[in-house]
Amino acid sequence: MADRSLLVTTLLTVWAVLPASGLARAEGGTPPGPQGGSTPPAPAAPTQGSGMGAPPPTLGPEGSSAPNGPRLGSGEAGAPPPLHVEYAQYGVAILALVDINSGAMCGNSVQSPVGGGRAPCILGSGGGLVIRGGYRSPGPWYVGGAYAFAKLDSSNLFRLGIFQQLWAEMRYLPDTGSRVAPFATWGLGGVTYGNEWGVETGGAMIFAGGGVQFEVTRKAVVGLGIVYKPTLIAGWTDTAGIVRPTGVANFLGLDIQLEVRTETGRR
Predict the structure, then answer these.
(1) Type and span of the H or E element at 7
(2) 54-58, 90-94, 150-154, 228-232: least confidently modelled range
(3) Strand ranges inside the chain, DSSP E
(4) 205 forms bridges with which residues in the sheet?
(5) What angle do CA 150, 154, 155 make, to 5 degrees?
(6) Burial (Cβ within 10 Å: 0-12, 13-18, ≥19) of residue 93
(7) Domains of the chain, start order
(8) In sequence order, which residues have a C-beta less than 8 Å from that of residue 239 and are 6 or more positions away?
């Protein structure tokens, strides 16, 4: 009888505990631990990609998400600025002076004092030498001057007819990014004409034209220029006694240039 009573008591106790445990699970609770306490939940392990435990990204300049470090294309990492160099530029040229029209001094009205008839023309084409020098700026400008002399065809009225010119000139040379550069040129000056190096008449001229230059090295250039030169020449009586009236002669000048540069400063 005692054993049967113990068995009944144990069954009643189990029957009372089972419904309470199922109710706790349905409500999301934790089944009671030892001494009636609850078991605390285990901490969740960080997963890869969750960002937990990783330091925040380093922000770049102006709050961008790019990391700090040298930036390509910036002033520090890019190419250095170009040098702005000033030069003294000087050289020589071989000159061809083509007489397009001699003007009034060789016109039909000019008569020979011996035997009458039209007098021979004292002003023709020829060739000579140019000596020039000037300032070449860091930009596209050249400013300078030149002296030239040419032996012209004087129809044997002069032993050696020398036509001398002294002028100021400017050139504009656009930057083409290559060794070959075209240029435009213009200027004005004075002229003299006479036997050998003497002066029998003189006048003034203006000119304009263009050409091309080739940079052999940074300090040496060769070029070809062509200019139109209307020239006013004062009237005079030549050595043969022929009266030459004032007139405008028209020349075409062609020169083959060889010039060098000397650095004078940087800025």
Answers:
(1) helix 2-26
(2) 54-58
(3) 85-101, 126-136, 141-152, 161-172, 180-195, 201-217, 220-233, 236-237, 243-244, 247-266
(4) 189, 231
(5) 145
(6) buried
(7) 85-266 (2.40.160.20)
(8) 157, 158, 195, 200
Mean pLDDT value of segment 20-27? 49
Within 8 A by CB and 6+ apart from 81, the residues are none
Give the DSSP letter of residue 36.
G
Q: What gap in Å lies between CA 179 and CA 173, rounded to an integer?
A: 12
- Average confidence (pLDDT) over 247-258: 97
CA–CA gap between residue 240 and residue 39 (Å, rounded): 138
Supply the pLDDT for residue 36. 46
Q: Which two tokens stand for residue 21?
A: 């445990």
State the pTM of this model: 0.68
